[in-house]
Design goal:
Layout: H1 3-52, H2 63-68, E1 90-95, E2 113-122, E3 126-127, E4 142-146, E5 151-155, H3 180-190, H4 199-208
Parallel strand pairs: 1-3
Antiparallel strand pairs: 1-2, 2-4, 4-5
Amino acid sequence: MSAKRLATVMVLVVATGFIGGYAQYRWRESRDLTCLSNLCILGAASQMYLADFNDTLPPAENWVDDLLVYTRSGSGDVTKCPFERSAARSSYGLNALVAGKPYAQIEDPGRTVLFYETAHPGDNPSGGSDDVVTPVRHVPGNAYTYCNGVGGRWSMTVPRFDPGKPPRMGGATGAVGETQPARIARRRAARGGRSSVTVSQIRSRSTSK
């Protein structure tokens, strides 16, 4: 084989490899976008459900049917990730901790998961953070929808599932009726700080002003 023909063959091999790699990239990218689109649709459907059911999220037992009526097609295609090949109806799960819960009871809807990519597809999958599929299905991570309806967000780590509010210790100034100087003294005392003034003394001074 002449040097010129060999060079031509090498160019063709490199070009074929590049085209094949690009086609594979575009194939994966289109499926990634389909998955994000599905979760955006489910997020919008959940907001319409909230409006019809007194600001309460759908129950875990039948959430797929409850939300499909709010999608444009009404088909189950929007509940399937293209990379998930099982015969199950849905490859997305509903966060069981928020299922059937009033929206007002969710502390941070924009950071609390509503739908996620489940490791156990089924007719109406639901679960918690330990049910998220691993390894991730997509190069950017797994896709999630949040309780405020925002869908199609990638994350390599598992976001927040717990909707509960943390316990609050009194009002904005600390304990009920506690002034700022008293709070500072209390914190110093708790840390073993050297303060010659007691909390009761500071309170009495604040009251006399």
